[in-house]
Amino acid sequence: MSPEKEETDEYGVLLYYNYADIPDLNDMVTFYNSNCSSLGLLGRVRISPHGVNVTVGGKLSCLESHIDAVKSIHNGLFQSTDFKLAPCHQPLNDQVAQESGFTSLSIRIVKELVTLSSRPLLKSPEISNAGKHLSAAEFHSSLHKVDKESPENSLVLLDARNLYETRIGKFDVPNVETLDPQVRQYSDLSSWIDDKIDQLKGKNILMYCTGGIRCEMASAYIKSKGAGFENVFQLYGGIQRYLEQFPDGGFFKGKNFVFDHRISVGSSDANIIGTCLICHCSFDDYSSRCRCTHCRMLVLVCHSCQNEAALYVCELCQKQGKAVRPMQLIENGESKTSLPGVDFQDFSSDTILLPQMPRGDDVKTSRKLRILCLHGFRQNASSFKGRTASLTKKLKKIAEFVFIDAPHELPFIYQTPTPVPQSSCVLSSSPPSPPPPSENCRKKFAWFVAPNFDGGCGVDWKVTDSPFDPLQYQHQTDGYAISISHLETVFSQQGPFDGILGFSQGAAMTALISAQQEKLKGKMDFKFVILCSGFALNVKEMECGFIKCPSLHIFGNEHGKDRQIDNQASKELASRYDGGCSVIVEHDCGHIIPTRSPYIDEIKDFLGRFL
Questions:
Q1: What is the rounded average pLDDT of the residues 4-20?
Q2: Where are the alpha helices (H) located in 516-586, listed in sequence order?
Q3: Nearest Cα to 527, choosing from 294, 380, 371?
Q4: With b meaning 16 or more CB within 10 Å and e meaning fewer, what string describes 523-560?
Q5: DSSP letter at 441?
């Protein structure tokens, strides 16, 4: 093999994004699936109506072929795209490779390439109004000029990345104020901007991030604030292009965190600016993947301080009062305050190391989303748990589901068989069928009942007075106050919960709760709702304008075979939510919550916003 061929067969990573109108999402998915699979590329491809965001790895020659193919599609749609290609080692750590998505090829259609906010925005920013691009040289020159001359009070540097990224690397320029929002995730940045809006007004704002895509939307959001926010600039190509232009690091100190198996990329300057969470020594290696036990954000823990049975609490959770002291373990009736090989006297008073008993093969237990589940009409917690077993199994790594019974107990009912004609005009006179045995019947419950409901329940069976009415859910509108009181007690005794999942009538109840979210604040706090086969009740509590609560709507399409809840009823409910923070998943699986791909992937994507 020639030296040139050996060189092109080295491993590499390719990053690029492009904001552009995608004419056909399915065509784009087909292209990426075919091209990446044929070239042996692994990684993440996200496609939205507004563009693509791609991070893939493979042989350099294959990555170059991929770039040529991308440039040739859709009449030069990607001709001006900045393709950031870097040679590197192949993934060595299976855990890191898996977390960064480099053990498979993941191609998904998403609503947004990056999620600026997990809450509805009064006005979504237009990407065409993003800050002016500055090349690495122009960005450096702007900073160099201020550094050499005099303090420029009108210039601020704004880091658009997360705290775990800025811990190990950031720009540091004398005489220039650098703002580090210290957010856990990008979707928190818009709230920080809103809080600091007076501090930013009238300033020349220079923004930067890893590769540029987060600055596109964030700079547009700042400029959307109007007068006083015209001078917003962004580092084109991000820190990656800057370090290529200035190999010694320039004004950037430390390492650039990247979202692939490399973890971080540094300059020729070997200085470390990160510190261990426990002992505060210099340390910037995230390869151990230690995480905060509360919010799951990555934390830096040096090799000497790492312990498999320990839990860590990040600096943000400490500020929120979530830092906890070593807990006592009870073993054979004797109190223990230490772990094998760990002497807590060796740690300072602000140490955040917790003993933890391993659970099965999951030694490092992650914090999961807690989701309260509300069953449908004439169901109970047990039956709903059984019906959602596949869903809970597939989401067990990220979510814990809590199932409860509704407060209105329903009577057992049965329908007698319709008399069968013995001839053209004679009906059989056989005695009515007896009710089914009740010994093994589980109680059934509801969130809403009919206005004429007498509250009777329990042991005896009742013969229904009419055939099954598929529209009965429209008439079950009473009982809201009792259900709300019941749920307030559940939140108080079993909370907190990150979100609420409702199915059928449970979804109608969940919708009412989300419509009253501000009114219920302090009694029932949650971040999102999932409405499956939902519908809206015609009650005054739903008359509140657009519901500004992040929501996922899952229901059967027009041909989805849901014989209980009409497709239009679920669509109408979804239309009541602010479109900027709602996701709709239509399926063809009937009156269920689908768990096969691509539906489960969309559910995971939605929940991922809140991890």
A1: 78
A2: 567-575
A3: 371
A4: ebebebbbbbbbbbbeeeebebeebbbbbbbbbbeeeb
A5: P
For the cut 70, the answer to whether the pLDDT of residue 421 exceeds it is no
Instruction: Please enumerate in sequence order all residues whose Cβ is within 8 A of that of 365, keeping only pairs 6 or more positions apart, or say none.
Output: 293, 311, 356, 359
CA distance 391 to 587: 15
State the burial class of residue 433 (Cβ atoms within 10 Å of its Cβ: 0-12, 13-18, 19+): exposed
139 CB-contact burial (10 Å; exposed 0-12 / middle 13-18 / buried 19+): buried
- Given the residues 62, 209, 290, 302, the one annotated as active site: 209
Q: Which amino acid is at 442?
A: R
Query: Considering only CA atoms, which of 37, 47, 39 is closest in space to residue 65?
Result: 39
Separation between Cα atoms, residue 579 and residue 436, nearest integer Å: 47
- 330 by Cβ neighbours in 10 Å (0-12 / 13-18 / 19+) ranks as exposed
Q: Report the C-alpha gap between 282 and 275 in whole angstroms.
A: 4
Residues belonging to the chain: 611
Q: How far is CA 484 from CA 52, 233, 364, 480, 503, in A?
A: 43, 49, 37, 6, 17
Q: Which helix (H) or strand (E) holds 505?
A: helix 505-515
Q: What DSSP line would sit under 328-377, residue for residue?
A: PEEETTEEE---TT--GGGS-TT--EEE---BTTB-SPPP-EEEEEE--T
Which pLDDT band, with edges at 50, 70 and 90, does 348 fall under? very low
Please state, in angstroms and rounded to a whole number, the distance separating the CA atoms of residues 259 and 238. 13
Helices 60-72 and 25-39: crossing angle in degrees, nearest 10, is: 160
Neighbours of 57 (CB within 10 A): 26
Encoded tokens for 156: 């601020």
Distance CA 397, CA 296 (A): 12
Q: Which residue has the tokens 């990160």?
A: 274
- Rounded to an integer, what distance in angstroms lies between the CA atom of residue 501 and that of residue 530? 5
pTM: 0.56
Look up residue 6 and give its amino acid.
E
Amino acid residing at 342: V
Read off φ and ψ for residue 34, nearest 5 degrees: -70, -50
Nearest to 534 by CA among 445, 447, 464: 447
Question: Do the Cβ atoms of 204 and 211 come closer than 8 Å?
Answer: no
Tokens (6 digits) for 232: 């917003």
For 354, 369, 492, 599, the CA distances from 596, given in Å and listed in that order, are 38, 21, 34, 6
Whether 305 sits among the annotated catalytic residues: the reply is no
Higher-pLDDT residue of 291 and 6 is 291
| Residues 298 and 289 sit within 8 Å (Cβ to Cβ) | yes
Structure tokens at 608: 């991922």
First CA to last CA distance, the chain? 47
Q: Which H/E stretch holds residue 107?
A: strand 105-109
Residues 114, 53 contacting (CB under 8 angstroms)? yes
Distance CA(380)–CA(384), nearest Å, equals 6
**Separation between Cα atoms, residue 591 and residue 315, nearest integer Å:** 45
Return the H-helix or E-strand segment holding 169: strand 169-171
Position 18 scores a pLDDT of: 94
Tokens 């042996």 belong to residue: 40
- Could you write out the three-class secondary structure of 16-57? EEEECCCCCHHHHHHHHHHHHHHHCCEEEEEEECCEEEEEEE
pLDDT band at 211 (very low <50, low <70, confident <90, very high): very high
The pair of structure tokens assigned to 4 is: 């040139």
Q: What is the pLDDT of residues 152-197, one digit of tens each?
A: 568 999 999 999 999 999 999 988 889 999 999 898 899 899 899 9
